[in-house]
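DM between two lab members

TW: hey, do you still have the Melibiose operon regulatory protein entry open?
JB: yeah, one sec
JB: this one, 279 aa:
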Amino acid sequence: MTDRHPTRTLKRQRPVEVRLADFGVTVFESAHAPLFSTDLMSHAFHKILLPVNGSGCVSVRRRQLSLLPDQATIVPAGVSHRLDDTPGQPVTLLALCLDPGVLVDRIACTSRAQTVALPAHRVHETRRLLRQMLFEQSTRKPGYRSLILGLAHQLVVLIERVTRTTDDKTTDTSRQRVMHHIDRLNGRFFEHITVDRAAEHCGMSRRRFTTLFRQITGESYRRYIERLRIDHARQLLTTTDHSILSIAFECGFDDVTSFYRSFARHESHAPGHYRRTHT
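TW: and the structure you got?
JB:
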């Protein structure tokens, strides 16, 4: 029997038969039984496999691509392949099936069959994205198609950037991970990303993260984000006619009171007075 939207399964001896959803993305989880086997197969969609445990390989032509929990294995559309588990180590995996036509940009990592080694913090992130897609796929709440498409793009781009980083032989040190997060903050300061979440994203303890963050920026995590928000608020106050409330919201503040309080720590005047004296 074919599942239109396969999700969690019992232990399987044969692969999940996938029919791609009408919007071009389907995700599933497959837990292999000890006697799991597949025939040679190919699909009209890209397939990205992320093992959770166990080990095995994907045979592609004369090559064998490893299936391991710290890797993403990519099988492009139209490529014949076969899955084999290591004896005594049946694989449990999460999989993303993606119509090539839904990709907006050219994503090089989907152009050839390959295995991509993922840093520890990226393993966590890829699993989180896939599990969120599984949840949306099974609950089908309003807008689930758009959300799944967005999450799928996010996962593919994440793997693409890991691939490019590896190709550039960039060492993924703790300091570099924090620096990368700081670069991301410059365009996402309006989001509520706690220091604990940031440390988890970078794959390190809170203490290690805050120490490196202060070494790099000279500021605490909270102070750095507040400064980015106030810098953006100054720009909006002097270049737009947006209301104070709108500016507070756009800069990441939940209410005007907290915005005024933060603004006062950086300026001697209230936002309204700052606007009048700087335009």
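TW: got it. The two ends are 68 Å apart (CA to CA). Residues 11-167 form a domain with the Jelly Rolls fold (CATH 2.60.120.280).
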